[in-house]
Amino acid sequence: MKTKAVFYHAGCPVCVAAEQNVANALDPGKYQVEIVHLGNDKSQLKEAESAGVKSVPALVMDGTAYHINFGAGIEALK
Amino acid sequence: MKTKAVFYHAGCPVCVAAEQNVANALDPGKYQVEIVHLGNDKSQLKEAESAGVKSVPALVMDGTAYHINFGAGIEALK
């Protein structure tokens, strides 16, 4: 069964570039990648924070948040 | 042809956990993952810096460095 990997970003260029590369690099046999634009979809902020997301871009995989580089703190998106 | 993805870390617990999860998540059909312990193998510091690595853990993929969370600055490893 595939695991869901969620990539959170906010539309900044560094986030979008990271998104494309990282999402494409994940094993498609293992992960189903969902991409969430937290700038446009603020209803997902709570879920992102629960998963441990503190800044974007971030990838949540197997219950752990991986912050990739640093685009913006999650507080800036509220 | 497979692309080489290099995961740089320095043996800290956050780095090792990130290493295992991220390295396992990459598409094995696309990437050949090499893991470099910069704490033990200082000869690779120059290559890591040239690739844009500023902190560990970091993943260099397709010519771009992705800093994953923040374990230690590369200066601390010299």
Can you give a write-up of this model?
The structure is a homodimer of 78-residue chains. Chain A is an alpha+beta fold and 78 residues long. Chain A has helices at residues 13-25, 45-50, and strands spanning 3-9, 31-37, 55-61, 64-73. Chain A has a 4-stranded mixed beta sheet with strand order 2-1-3-4, with helices on one face. In chain A, strand 1, helix 1 (13-25) and strand 2 (31-37) form a beta-alpha-beta unit. The radius of gyration of chain A is 11 Å and the shape is globular. The model of chain A has no long low-confidence stretch (mean pLDDT 89). Chain A binds chain B through residues 5, 17-18, 21-22, 24-31, 61-62, 64, 66-70, and chain B through 5, 17-18, 21-22, 24-31, 61-62, 64, 66-70.
Weakly predicted, low-confidence segments of chain A: none
Give the chain pair forming the largest contact, with residue counts. Answer: A-B, 21 and 21 residues
Instruction: Please count the helical segments of chain A.
Output: 2
Main sheet attributes: strand count, strand direction, barrel closure of chain A: 4 strands, mixed
Distance between the termini of chain A: 34 Å
Percent of sequence in beta strands of chain A: 35-45%
| Spatial sequence of strands, sheet with the most strands of chain A | 2-1-3-4
Cα-atom radius of gyration of chain A: 11 Å
Strand-pairing-aware structural class of chain A? alpha+beta
Count of individual beta strands of chain A: 4
Helix-strand sequence of chain A: EHEHEE
Note the topology.
Two copies of one chain form a homodimer.
Chain A: E1 3-9, H1 13-25, E2 31-37, H2 45-50, E3 55-61, E4 64-73
Parallel strand pairs in A: 1-2
Antiparallel strand pairs in A: 1-3, 3-4
